[in-house]
What does this fold into?
Amino acid sequence: MTRFARGSIGPEADWLAVAVRARFPKLVAALGDGLFEAMLASFREREPAARSSLAEMHERLPEYLACSAAYPVWYAELAALDRAHVRVLNARVTQPLVRSQLTPERELRVTPAHATVTLTTTADDLWCALDDAAANCQRARVPKPRSLDWPRTVLVWRRIRGEIERRTIDPDEATALRAATRGTSLVELSAGLPHARALDLVVRWIDDGVLGE
It folds into this structure.
């Protein structure tokens, strides 16, 4: 007899559970199988619209964890980092801009293969520790993330060759990146930032492959 997890709706729900686990690998590694399965069952019960859709489950799970008082904040933030990496992996990558193509008035276009996650805990340190352990085929020691004194933003993006990169960005860079995502230029960025800082950010984005043609 086939057994289904609490809150499931049949064999397709079991398939969905496997697919969801694959999309949140660091959350699974941090929580362990039992706790993750119990959390997922609770999520299914409270989010009926997500029970039969992998896309809905993938998008809604971090917000569900963030809104539930039953789970620590870092659960949601670790899940958001997992989700960001999957989004970046599946997004289109554009031909990167090079320094010689930059002019003050040129429109800056951020690659679609990028995502930002705002954190209030050190969930990104845990994500990196788990990633390193997985790469080295080791069992990770799971340090409990601590609360930050102030929020920080993590940028995740994919280069044209396929490598996924991530780094913490300063508040002014996060603001500038949002402007570039909407559409901006070096001239416009320099209106809100010192010109030298705006130029440093744009050149770094070019070198990192964050900007496309």
About this structure: The chain has two domains: 11-71, 92-212. The radius of gyration is 19 Å. The first strand starts at residue 107 and ends at 110. The beta strands are 107-110, 114-121, 147-158, 164-169, 184-185, 211-212.
